[in-house]
Amino acid sequence: MDDIDCAAERVEAFNAVALQSVLSRMAGPASSGICQACGSAIEDERLQASPHARHCRECAADIEAETRRKNRCGPR
Ligand SMILES: [Zn+2]
């Protein structure tokens, strides 16, 4: 059990670092305001919440659901 807890902690720390680097990479150019999936305008509200959003709310929800389906059996 201890080993697992330890590993989980390490993974968490790694994820925090990885997340930061992903975020800073993603933080490049701000969103064009156009959904890259369906081509419609991304909601202003959404852009204010995440200036680098690449997808409109609907597509983002789709993508998130798809990602969750794929990761269902993966690490949480
Ligand atoms: Zn869209």
Task: Provide a short characterization of the protein structure.
This protein has helices at 2-26, 44-49, 57-70. The chain is an all-alpha fold and 76 residues long. The protein binds zinc ion.
Describe what this molecule looks like in 3D.
The protein has 76 residues and is mostly helical. The chain folds into two domains: 1-29; 31-76, no CATH class. The protein has three helices and no strands. It has helices at 2-26, 44-49, 57-70. It is elongated and about 50 Å long. The protein starts with a helix and ends in a 6-residue tail after the last helix. The model has no long low-confidence stretch (mean pLDDT 82). Bound molecules: zinc ion (ZN). Residues 35, 37-38, 40, 55-56, 58-59 line the site of zinc ion.
Mean pLDDT figure: 82
Count of β-strands: 0
> Helical residue percent?
55-70%
Percent of sequence in beta strands: under 5%
Oligomer: single chain
Radius of gyration: 16 Å
Give the names of the bound compounds: zinc ion
Topology pattern, helix = H, strand = E = HHH
Structural class: mainly alpha
